[in-house]
Amino acid sequence: MRLQRTVEGELNRLFVFELSDGLRVEGVLYRGDTLCVSTQVGCPVRCVFCASGRYGFIRNLKAEEIYGQLELVRSFHGIRRIAVAGIGEPLANWRNVKVAFERFRREGLRVSFYTCGFPLSNLPQLLRMPHNGVTLSLHTTDPATRAELMPGAGDLPQLLQFLRKLLPTLSRRKRKKISLALVLLKGVNDSAGDLLRFAELAQSLGVGITLLRYNEVGVFESPDEEEFEKAFLLLRRQGIRVTLSTRFRRERIGGCGTLTVGGRLPRGG
Fold first, then answer.
1. How far is CA 232 from each of CA 176, 211, 238, rounded to the nearest angstrom?
2. CA dist 64 → 69, 70, 133, 159 (Å)
3. What are the b/e assignments for 129-164, b being 16+ CB within 10 Å?
4. What is the DSSP letter of 136?
């Protein structure tokens, strides 16, 4: 495994890692001290608003490949935080992700996760771990819409039923570190009704909302600044804790949904 190249953005620094089999994944340095790492080559969730699953799922990263992304960049960057939010679904490669997480934690790093919540069997352990935050990628309360947006994300009603049983068993401090992700897609999930239903869901679960801007990598359109602000204010008026997508996650280089795989892709990829 080696650092093949670095791409400088206005705010972020994108790293292209070449694996021993010639495949490539990407990671991102943002905020100057946070490294976003990948956990799989490709992604089985195949979100249609994200470039990471464009070639489908190719293989899991080994624990040393997940941790190795830190090793390859920390000699010239002071890393304090790890975001397991790059290419791949961490719960679908849980054994290797858990080993890498434990290594990150032993070095005093704060670790946060983005996940679609499936496989459900691994979700309780993730939520109970000493993480620095877990963001659950929902993006809608409508099962049919979510199935279209995230074909490999599992059954939404099953996930919500699971969360309603699991979350009350966690401490209030733990629940404050959990949020539901909502990437706004114009004409898809951004109506007042959509937003109110999403706020009601977050309120019923006792968690916050992470409101994300869509980086236009596919067929969708992002609401403009005024529409995005209206959505934010509407959610806030419902008494929900709302975290906004930072400028680092909105940049064209290394922003949410922009990471891709490369290298010796399978035939037809």
1. 19, 7, 10
2. 9, 10, 23, 30
3. eebebbbbbbbbbbeebbeebbebbbebeebbebbe
4. E
26 part of the active site? yes
* SS3 call for 111: strand
**Sign of the C-alpha dihedral, residues 151, 152, 155, 158?**
negative
Whether residue 225 lies in the annotated active site: no
Which pLDDT value is given to residue 266?
62
DSSP assignment string, 201-226:
HHHHHT-EEEEEPPP--SS-----HH
* Whether the Cβ atoms of residue 26 and residue 259 lie closer than 8 Å to each other: yes
- The CA-to-CA distance between both ends of the chain, in Å, stands at 22
The one catalytic residue in 18, 26, 89, 221 is 26
pTM: 0.93
CA atoms of 153 and 158, how far apart (whole Å): 11
Q: Which residue has the tokens 């996930």?
A: 159
Q: Could you say which of 47, 50, 116, 256 is catalytic?
A: 256
**What gap in Å lies between CA 14 and CA 257, rounded to an integer?**
13
All structural domains of the chain: 2-244 (3.20.20.70)
AA identity, residue 178: I
pLDDT digits (tens, 9 = 90+) for 137-158: 999 999 999 999 999 999 999 9
